[in-house]
Design goal:
It contains ten helices and no strands. It is mainly α. It folds into two domains: about 200 residues, Growth Hormone, Chain: A (Up-down Bundle), CATH 1.20.1250.20; about 70 residues, no CATH class.
Length: about 280
Amino acid sequence: MAGNKVDWRALWASGDLARFCFVSLGILLHATNETMVATVMPAMVGELAGVQLVGWSLAIYELGAIVAGAAAGRLVSYVALRSNMMVAALLYAAGALICAAAPSMPFFLAGRLVEGLGGGALVSLAFVSVERLFPRNIWPQLFGIMSAIWGVAAFSGPMLGAVMTEFLSWRWAFGVFTVGGAAMALASFIVLDTPEATRPQAGRGTAPPFPYPALACLAIAVVLIAAAGIDIAPLRSSLLLALGLIGLALFFRIDARRPRSRLFPAPLFSWRSPLGS
């Protein structure tokens, strides 16, 4: 490969293109699931009842995705990328299965939380995979393709939900993601067979401490902000939103004070850095 030009034939011959397609599948599963739920919601609520909890179906999925997404990038310091990917895919499949078989709305929401944890981790690990498995000079092209997948999901998610609900059942829509997650877990073991994918990022004894306090603060902040947007009441929602924003600010402060185990890069809020801008 010369410069930033990608030799796709060489990438395919080396097996790297197959690995890239595989890790990108995690983004597609997560994003499609995220956009699908709106189209299955009417049929699901009609069967499960619990209309007062409907607002949490997306909020609790995002809660799991945000927390797991933040944690997964750090977990590769302790556990191999392949193992992380397998666990994330199995979590995603288990959550989708719980949703598909849920007898009531609380069970469905529990499945959505588990599904969100797996999906958020898959997305985070996909971006980590690019950094660990592919040459630096082709990162921009690979990141561009991964970003385009979200656009594909914006159309494929609602379409999948509508087709499944119309011709089969809303439960089958989640059944598709159960199969997809299980297949991805199996494929992780087969495809991610390189040394970079089968060993932890940090050597034994050199891994930084895991940021439990920061993650707990992030989870609480996200719950408060999500609760503010459900069953809106001016005073209660304003108070919850304010507390959530304070919690978010506290999270970034805690994260910044632990440079070895921070979850977000230092130049995130700097306009002078490419990342911040």
